[in-house]
């Protein structure tokens, strides 16, 4: 019973991670890239929680790491959106190919 639940969570996390990876590697809009990165981080969080609950040695360590990851992801999203807004105001686009110059 627990192996079935763990494998279903891990399968869902793998699907979410693959969707996020596809979006991060193929999309040109910077907002979509940020959303894809968040999707990948949430897939990792799902893995951490599932393995902490249904793993060989169940403990709270995975859940604590997932809380840490959620905190880092929130900070990353806030900083990333702020940078995107600043770049959009200066250049008028959110295309990642136009944002390759950080020298100025």
UniProtKB/TrEMBL annotation:
Its EC number is 7.1.1.-. It is a multi-pass membrane protein. One of its GO terms (cellular component) is NADH dehydrogenase complex. It catalyses: a quinone + NADH + 5 H(+)(in) = a quinol + NAD(+) + 4 H(+)(out). It is an enzyme of class 7 (translocase). NDH-1 shuttles electrons from NADH, via FMN and iron-sulfur (Fe-S) centers, to quinones in the respiratory chain. The immediate electron acceptor for the enzyme in this species is believed to be a menaquinone. Couples the redox reaction to proton translocation (for every two electrons transferred, four hydrogen ions are translocated across the cytoplasmic membrane), and thus conserves the redox energy in a proton gradient. NDH-1 is composed of 14 different subunits. Subunits NuoA, H, J, K, L, M, N constitute the membrane sector of the complex. This is NADH-quinone oxidoreductase subunit K. It comes from Paenibacillus antri. The gene is nuoK.
């Amino acid at each position: 019973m627990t192996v079935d639940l763990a494998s279903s969570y891990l399968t869902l996390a793998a699907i979410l991670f693959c969707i996020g990876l596809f979006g991060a590697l193929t999309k040109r809009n910077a907002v979509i890239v940020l959303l894809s990165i968040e999707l990948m981080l949430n897939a990792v969080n799902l893995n951490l929680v599932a393995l902490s609950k249904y793993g060989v040695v169940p403990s709270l360590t995975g859940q604590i790491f997932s809380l840490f990851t959620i905190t880092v992801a929130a900070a990353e999203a806030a900083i990333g959106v702020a940078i995107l807004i600043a770049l959009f105001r200066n250049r008028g686009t959110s295309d990642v190919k136009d944002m390759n110059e950080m020298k100025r």
